[in-house]
Amino acid sequence: MKRIAIYCSASDSIPEIYRSAAYRLGVLVGEARLELIYGDGGIGLMAQVADGVLSTGGTVTGVIPRFMVDRGWHNPKSTNRIVTETMHERKAYIAREADAMVALPGGVGTFEELLECLTWKQLGLHNKPIVIVNINGYYDHLLAALDHMVEEHFMQPLHRDAMFQVVSTPEEVLPAIARAPHWGKEEQEHARS
Ligand code: AMP
């Protein structure tokens, strides 16, 4: 594994517990000599993760649509910047280039990115590890919604159990990626059942 995608909040108004966890995850990613690939945000948890990686001398690649650069929303500290024409191109680029996907707490933007990663894995379009970092129980409601999907048969138990992992601290993220459940052609067959 070389490159890790981290999706997270672009808000600067959130409590410190989330900010320090994001910075810490960035430090751990940098210390592991992994490259961060992310949405190039210069604020919120996005900036915290990038700052954590950069504090170790690590590499940060930001992928951001042109309209955001025009508004000055990019992170000037990023090591590399890929400018895309659309949000969809940005998400596709990050998902293609990353070897693993991690979601820290975030708003609708982060949820959309996480749920797209899950949807594409369910369809067999990729088999990369996905880790949800449930800082402060932030994702409890989403996890309950996924449980409800399974209970009502809108989602298969296999997809709830084996497609992603949930951890509660930054320290657990890289070990979780290393022991991610196998996801191969057999699992892909479940997409249509
Ligand atoms: P959210 O989780 O709703 O805070 O949204 C996070 C996602 O929204 C990011 O991954 C970006 O796609 C986008 N986004 C929103 N605001 C910004 C910003 N100021 N700079 C960069 N990306 C942003």
Number of domains: 1
Order of helices and strands: EHEHEHEHEHEHHEHH
CATH class: Alpha Beta
CATH architecture: 3-Layer(aba) Sandwich
Q: Give the low-confidence spans.
A: none
- The total strand number stands at 7
The kinds of small molecule bound in this structure are: adenosine monophosphate
The Cα radius of gyration reads: 16 Å
The global form is globular
Strand content: 15-25%
Strand order of the largest sheet: 4-3-2-1-5-6-7
Distance between the termini: 31 Å
The overall pLDDT average reads 96
* Helix content range: 40-55%
Number of helices: 9
Helix and strand composition category: alpha/beta
Describe the sheet with the most strands: 7 strands, parallel
What does this structure look like?
This protein has 193 residues and is α/β, with parallel strands linked by helices. It has one domain: 3-Layer(aba) Sandwich (Rossmann fold). 46% of the residues lie in helices and 16% in strands. It has 9 helices and 7 strands. The protein has helices at 16-31, 44-55, 66-70, 87-97, 108-122, 140-151, 157-162, 173-178, 185-189, and strands spanning 3-7, 35-38, 60-65, 80-84, 100-103, 130-133, 165-167. It has a 7-stranded parallel sheet, with helices on both faces. The radius of gyration is 16 Å and the shape is globular. The mean pLDDT is 96. Bound molecules: adenosine monophosphate. The site of adenosine monophosphate has 15 residues, from helix 5.
